[in-house]
Amino acid sequence: MLDLRVIVPGDLRDAVLGVLRRQVGVAHILVHRGAAIDPDGDEISAVIARESANDVIKELKALDAQHRGAITLTVLDTVLSSTAHEAEDRAEGDPADALVWDELITRTREESTLSVTFLMFLTLACLLAAIGVVTDSMVTVVGAMVLGPEFGPLAALSVAITQRRGELARRALVALLVGFPIAMAITALLTLAGEAVGWLSLDTVRKVHEVDFIFQVGPVSFVVALLAGAAGMLSLVSAKSSALVGVFISVTTVPAAGFAAVAAVLGDWDVAAKSAAQLGVNLVGIVVAGVLVLVLRPRGNPIPRAAQT
Question: Where along the sequence do coiled-coil regions lie (predicted)?
């Protein structure tokens, strides 16, 4: 279940209470009159079922509560209340299947920002992948897969396409189109340094056996990307983040980027091209799968674009 908190001016108090009382999946409504300072007004809270969240938020936005005050949602891990459980039972659907659009949009927006932290994680993942390649170490490559932060922008792009949100799509594309070239360029520079001191050579790339799957691109690569992307999006919409680790290990986005940079610097252009193709296939497959999951799965009432602002 979710903890809903609404801060609104006093003149919206009755309208907000009316919304909460009309929804079957709402319990434990609290009103703190005059508790809010900015804006000057009231704090209203309630426990709501995930299945009812989209309808509740839609009606609150129709009151302009998000502009005149604030609407926040917090996931409740443990709720010991017969009244709350009865409200959840009355709500249509199952909590595990409930897609809360505002929650998903907020999460993907935060994870798709081109920040210094994002660039550092992506660069470290590419460097780790490069080391895994030149040492032919499967364990190191898997570590790079888990470390890579690229699924956030890919998920955001899927959400943006489904909900037709241009700003979110631009944010995700900037993170991907700027982040990967920077990470690959730094990997290439360090590869040049390694070649200059004699640590790396063309034979290093051609002797790879354990991790040669990185540049073996084909139809299976796209299928794996589709399955991993679908699993990743399901883990996001159902708030089961533990499944994301399996998603990261399934796809070869970061390893392909790192291998492409290493192979290009060392002069194996065939492997570099195949690794770049693997990267593209995985990125496209994950986004396509994310869109399909959002379009095809039962998700209650979608949020109209006018209500999302």
Answer: none
